Amino acid sequence: MTKRGVIVTEIQEVAMTHIGREISQQELRLIPYVHFVLCNGGVIDVHKVNAEELGIIREWMDEGLLFGNNGDLRTTKRFWDYMSEVMYLGYAAKVE
Asked: What CATH number has the domain bearing residue 69?
């Protein structure tokens, strides 16, 4: 059984389908926090993310997957669906 939070083939397939590229391990680990933020006020706590993670969030914004200003983070339906599927595969599903 694969450990939680580890990239598997199915996750990369979902990434290619939804965002047109593969993702890094760091992106996979950041997705649950961004999902949490979007559900709870939309404000990234800079004390809970490092510079690399902030860079990933900026990249997602540049790709049009996330948007917002003044701490009000929002997402597209496409990215929301992607995050949900990736979290299921990477954290909730029993992967063998």
From this structure: 1.10.10
Whether the pTM exceeds 0.85: the reply is: yes
Angle between helices 51-62 and 25-39 (to 10 degrees): 80
For residue 27, CA distances in Å to 57, 67, 70 come to 9, 17, 23
pLDDT 10s digits, 42-92: 888 889 999 999 999 999 999 999 998 776 899 999 999 999 999 999 998
- Asked if 92 and 7 count as a contact pair (C-beta separation under 8 A), the reply is no
- Residue 26: give the domain boundaries: 9-92
